[in-house]
Amino acid sequence: MHLVMDGYGADAHRLQDELLVRELLDSYPDAIGMTKISEPLVHRYTDGKVPVDWGVSGFVLIAESHISVHTFPDRGYLNVDIFSCKPFDADLAVNELVGRFGITEVRMQVLDRGLEEFADKQAGLDHRGVGAAATPTSV
Prior knowledge:
By secondary structure, the protein is α+β, with helices and mostly antiparallel strands. It has a single domain (2-138), classed as S-adenosylmethionine decarboxylase, CATH 3.60.90.10. Helices cover 27% and strands 34% of the residues. The chain has four helices and seven strands; from the N terminus they run βααββββαβαβ. Strands 2-3-4-5-1-6-7 form a seven-stranded antiparallel beta sheet, covered by helices on one side.
């Protein structure tokens, strides 16, 4: 399962807070039923080609795969990827992010990937395809 989320209208002060991103990546895996297997790696970047594209990026390995966060404070925007070999509650995962960053609009896609597809093929079931298309949602 792969959740790809874009959050808009987020709080710029929270988006530039490296400690907040680190704390999120430290506690978030457990909050959504995953198992953290590395310490979060968080980096503030300021040398992009477009001045407003600075921000904070973070990454944490989980037993199920990984979680990444990229923030753009001047744009009030962030994107998050959660890639997992086991199903998880995407709405719970998104709601946690909405609360932490003050997001007002969410666009998300949930893709079925990996082991679920393999298990279906091994069982002789039809391929299920990918999840829902990206749809805007107000929070």
